[in-house]
Design brief:
A: about 775 residues; alpha+beta; 5 domains; 6-stranded mixed beta sheet; elongated; B: alpha/beta; Rossmann fold; 5-stranded parallel beta sheet; 5 helices; about 50% helix
């Protein structure tokens, strides 16, 4: 079966699902490097690869299966603890992920011939898994349609004695034939366990428990042999199963007889198992043995068929007429006739020797305790559906049309109101228009929301980026991501990807110093880059904060003059921030050496264009020599939804973004103080600037007291804002205030639950205001 | 003929579903792991289950064991990969009636289903 045989939708599903798995895989791999002992995570990674491989094998993507299989083999070794995942192993695994990514891109582009992974890589990965590459060649020949063999000699089953002594060739379905080696070793293992238990049967004290163990072993044997439809063996195993029930009620004499016959039956089964590995089976006359076993277990065995307690199984077989030499001359070379019969080791294969028990126990232990990563991976079926972006866009356009028509209906309603004398009609029209208005607004928000995606979608790729950069440059860099759950419009995600990569690269390459230099400067040899995102009013802010060497005003200024961007005189008057902005100019690079990572001066201007032109945002640079650089990207949101606290002063209500509120207090008089003319508030031994909403927003209501203080946190600074009333929490939709002159720190407006309009407090501006107030005093 | 597909990968479920549809089976219920399947078996009352081995939350083997405590007869077919084949015996002991190795052709799956049902009804 090839790709063309499948519904294109299935291929699409595969690309989407496996693509997501692959992304998750990559970030999981980077995190596992830090916590190599997290077995849950290793398992999760393994499962992801496994799923990708499984689906790919159906789609006959042989080259994809090959590399996925190799990586899976390596991970399996990590899963079982055979290897630990250090940097060299991670390099290989990540390289495999890279190959998979390329192959996915090819698939997405409609190519059928996928790039083949480097043989070295496949071999290295497979070696990690402790397998020879040849032995691990993936089974990916989906065109192999197994035939259905007819079972030759199956007529031997009805009358087992008829063909006694005949050797019949076992014909099995290829899938079952495939498993025969496992069957053989399993049967041998069960038999040796059974033999061990049978030895314990003499002890009447533990007989009941031994009987139970024997019953279970026999039951499993029946199930396995029945599956392979080896009737001769099933008959013996079933007889054993029956015999082991009710051992308790037997006399000592009878137990001895059961034990004799059971041991004999075991040796027959063991011999047959050996033959099975060669796909042949000798039909033996086991009727008498089975019958006597049954009689003994019922306590009905006649005394003349009793055997002495020390009879060996060989003699039992002869006595019961099973042995080829039914007259009591068993063939000496038969392994079954050896009283100390030990199952020979399973035929040599390159597969690990089966050890079902410990593996099973481990699995059960793993299942017994709740597995947090498994919970994370548990996605209830059909909780989400995938929708083509095109459909959402057309929905958006339709909503736009709807809004226009709604406005028109509103205007018509007004006209009707002035024109008509039918009061009933006027009222109905007004009610309808306002309902339509509300519903349309809700639809608009709902549709916008479908396009919102968490920034994590972008951020997920960066740990790998930083890891690779650190490896290449020999630096130690730690990336800390905060606010990945911040949701932004899909278009923002798309436009933001490249600029962020550029800025992060710059921070890692130019910002963070080599470990030695950092240590000399008294810093942690490990540099930290923080990527912080969050809503700030009607904006989304992204900050890239490094604790590196910072920007050098002199070097940048000199270069700017050289490049003719400004004159020496101009330079002297510029603020630091303005000088730093020169690095955003095209062709501007101060790097002493151009690395293959960054430093060619290509990029920052592209970053700026992307942010300023495409996203209508801004990029600011703050830097302190020796302490690091902070790049801030601020992007406006046309519509954003966020939780806010509604507060009021007099008649006016304001929305304060909840994420910025650290607490709301009702201060006692002794908490107020001032520095110069600036009012301050004491909170747990610290003093923070205090502002009054009435004063900031220039509200007339002098009489309304302001007993509450909303404590706002921004950029690690706290500011108190006095308000009259606290109304409560509400999800607000931010509407921009374009073309409206703003009085005070306002970032937008929102419609309240009751239909009125509230202004949204611009936190960034408010904090700046408090600082400038403070600075002018100080 | 009601068939329950138990697999954590939606792609895999879709592939198997399309194969089953080609074979003329239309009453299909899906579950994304063993736990999910256990919560659905009572309502769906499947005539046959196709169970993947490797799944989060509850894997196929655990599902089979739990399922078999209550239901001894409904046929279960384990869907395994080449690598899991060494453990098929374990699944057989737990109570699966048959198994099929991925990737399989529609013919092979059809054959397995027919074979399994015939054996169970025999």
């Amino acid at each position: 079966m090839s790709i063309s045989d499948f519904d294109p939708e299935i291929l699409q599903d595969f690309l989407t699902e496996s693509g997501e798995l692959l992304e998750q895989l990559e970030s999981d791999l980077v995190s596992i490097e830090a916590t190599p002992d997290d077995l849950d995570l290793v398992n999760q990674i393994f499962r992801a690869l496994h799923t990708i491989k499984g689906s790919a094998s159906f789609l006959a993507l042989t080259n994809l299966v090959e590399i996925a299989h190799a990586a899976e083999t390596a991970l399996n070794a990590a899963r079982t603890g055979a290897i630990s995942l250090g940097p060299p192993e991670m390099d290989l695994l990540l390289a495999a992920v890279d190959v998979l990514k390329v192959q996915f891109e090819q698939l997405g582009a409609g190519e059928v011939e996928l790039e083949k992974a480097d043989d070295r890589l496949v071999a290295d990965l497979t070696n990690l898994g402790g397998q020879s590459p040849d032995g691990a060649a993936p089974h990916a020949d989906p065109d192999a349609t197994p035939g259905t063999p007819t079972e030759i000699g199956s007529d031997a089953g009805d009358d087992p004695e008829a063909d006694a002594g005949c050797e019949r060739v076992i014909e099995l379905d290829p899938a079952k034939a495939d498993l025969v080696e496992h069957l053989v070793s399993d049967v041998q293992q069960s038999i040796s366990q059974m033999q061990m238990q049978l030895e314990r049967l003499n002890d009447s004290g533990t007989r009941s428990a031994t009987g139970t163990a024997l019953s279970e072993l026999a039951e499993d044997l029946v199930k396995t042999l029945d599956f392979f439809e080896i009737d001769e063996c099933v008959r013996i195993a079933s007889a054993l199963e029956r015999a082991f029930e009710g051992l308790d009620s037997l006399s000592e004499d009878q137990v001895v007889q059961v034990r004799h016959r059971a041991l004999a039956a075991c040796s027959v089964l063991g011999e047959q198992a050996n033959e099975l590995s060669d796909m042949r089976l000798t039909v033996r006359p086991t009727g008498t043995l089975i019958e006597r076993l049954g009689l003994a277990s019922n306590g009905d065995l006649p005394a003349q068929q009793f055997l002495a307690p020390d009879t060996d199984p060989r003699s039992v077989l002869a006595f019961d007429g099973v042995s080829a030499g039914a007259q009591g001359v068993p063939p000496a070379e038969s392994p079954a006739s050896d009283p100390d019969f030990n199952p020979p080791p399973a035929p040599a294969t390159d597969s690990p020797s089966p050890e079902p028990k410990p593996e099973l126990a481990r699995k059960q232990a793993a299942n017994a305790k709740p597995d947090p990563t498994a919970k994370r991976a548990q996605v209830p079926l059909e909780q989400t559906i995938r929708v083509e972006v095109g459909r959402l866009e057309s929905l958006m356009n339709l909503v736009g049309e709807l809004v226009l028509q709604k406005n028109r209906v509103g205007a018509l309603a007004d006209e009707v109101a002035t024109d008509s004398r039918n009061a009933d009609l006027i009222e109905q029209m007004e009610v309808t228009a306002s309902t339509l208005d509300r519903v349309t607004g809700d639809i608009q928000v709902a549709v916008m929301r479908t396009r919102m995606q968490p920034l994590d979608k972008l951020f997920g790729k960066y740990p790998r980026l930083i890891r690779d950069l650190a490896t290449k440059t020999g630096k130690q860099i730690q990336l800390v991501i905060e606010g990945g759950d911040t949701e932004v419009d899909k278009s923002v995600i798309e436009e933001l990807g490249d600029p962020l990569v550029h800025l992060l690269r710059n921070s890692a390459d130019h910002g963070i110093e080599m470990p030695g230099a950092r240590a000399d400067a008294g810093k942690d040899p490990k540099g930290t880059i923080r990527l912080v995102a969050g809503h700030e009013g009607s904006h989304v802010c992204l900050r890239i904060i490094d604790d590196g060497k910072g920007l050098n005003r002199e070097v940048i200024g000199r270069k700017a003059v050289q490049n003719g961007l400004c004159s020496e005189e101009q330079l002297a008057t510029l603020a630091d921030e303005e000088v730093f902005r020169f690095i955003l100019e095209a062709g501007f690079s101060t790097a002493d050496q151009v690395s293959d990572l960054s430093g060619r001066g290509v990029g920052m201007d592209v970053v700026r264009t992307n942010i300023e032109r495409n996203l209508k945002g801004s990029l600011t640079i703050e830097s302190e020599p020796g302490a690091g650089t902070t790049l801030t990207i601020t992007i406006p949101l046309t519509v954003a939804i966020m939780p806010a606290m509604m507060v009021a002063v007099g008649e006016d209500t304001f929305a304060i973004p909840l994420t910025n509120i650290t607490e709301i207090v009702r201060p006692t008089p002794d908490m107020f103080s001032s520095i110069g003319d600036s009012p301050m508030i004491h909170l747990r031994g610290q003093v923070h600037p205090l502002m009054s909403a009435r004063e900031i927003f220039d509200l007339a209501d002098e009489n309304d007291p302001e007993p509450f203080v909303v404590v706002i946190g921004f950029n690690q600074k706290l500011v108190g804002l006095r308000v009259s009333r606290v109304i409560g929490q509400q999800e607000i939709v931010i509407k921009p205030l374009d073309g409206v002159r703003r009085e005070g720190p306002i970032s937008g407006a929102t419609v309240r639950n009751d239909g009125g309009v509230s202004l949204i407090v611009d936190i960034a501006e408010l904090v700046r205001l408090s600082r400038s107030q403070h600075n002018t005093v100080a | 003929m009601r068939i329950m597909l138990i697999d954590d990968s939606k792609t895999m479920r879709n592939i198997q579903k399309s194969v089953l549809k080609q074979l003329g089976y239309t009453e299909i219920e899906e579950a994304c792991d063993g736990q999910d399947a256990l919560s659905k078996v009572a309502a769906f009352n499947p005539d046959l289950c196709l169970v993947d081995w490797n799944m989060p939350v509850m894997d196929g083997l655990t599902f089979v064991k739990t399922f078999r405590q209550k239901d001894k007869s409904t046929p279960l077919i384990m869907v395994t990969t080449e690598a899991e084949k060494s453990r098929v015996i374990e699944a057989i002991k737990a109570g699966v009636n048959n198994y099929v190795v991925k990737p399989f052709t529609p013919d092979l799956l059809s054959e397995r289903i027919t074979e399994t049902l015939a054996k169970v009804s025999a």
